[in-house]
Amino acid sequence: MRTKLIIIALALLAGGGLAFYHLHGDGHSHGTGGELQLNAGKKWNTDQPLREGMERIRELVSAAKPAGSPSDMEALAKGVQQQVNYLVANCKLPPAADETLHVMITDLLEGADLVTKKNDPQHGIAVMRKALETYPKYFDHAGWPGVGDT
């Protein structure tokens, strides 16, 4: 799993974006939540890098406005991608927890792609917000403030 996330990060850094990610054939049934799983019925523990990265992503998405300028959308997408890269480089989770996080990361990157390359900020922000609303259902992140209304 860590290798898959490193490939994603490298593709993003190289400018390959989400299109490259979809080509690696991970079997993820996107949009169905097929890989989301709890830890024997409980939320997964989080480490400091996961909490920090997800909080930064939450701040970016919470502040985003669908009517923002193209440069606002570029900044949002770039910020989300930077935080995903941070998660990949620093987060240490058990494989099953990593797989669950992978589903949310895929949605975050899809949202980033939608706000920029697909020019659909409303849908892109909604996809990212849904991923962030899903996160605390599977990960034990004390003090998670939620996404809030934007």
Brief digest:
By secondary structure, the chain is mainly alpha-helical. It has helices at about 1-15, 15-25, 50-65, 70-90, 95-115, 120-140; strands at about 45, 140. A two-stranded parallel sheet has the order 1-2.
3D structure, described in words:
This protein has one domain. Helix content is 64%, strand content 3%. It has helices spanning 2-13, 17-23, 48-63, 70-90, 95-116, 121-138; strands at residues 44-45, 139-140. It has a two-stranded parallel ribbon. The longest helix is centred in the C-terminal third of the chain and has 22 residues, at 95-116. Mean pLDDT is 81; it is low at 9-34.
How is this fold's topology laid out?
Blueprint: H1 2-13, H2 17-23, E1 44-45, H3 48-63, H4 70-90, H5 95-116, H6 121-138, E2 139-140
Parallel strand pairs: 1-2
Order of secondary-structure elements? HHEHHHHE
* Percent of residues in helices: 55-70%
State the separation between the terminal residues, measured CA to CA: 33 Å
**Count of spatially separate domains:** 1
Strand order of the largest sheet: 1-2
Work out the radius of gyration.
Answer: 14 Å
Number of strands: 2
Coarse structural class: mainly alpha
Shape: elongated
Mean pLDDT: 81
Beta-strand percentage range:
under 5%
Contiguous helical run count: 6
Unreliable spans = 9-34
**Strand count, sense and closure of the main sheet?**
2 strands, parallel
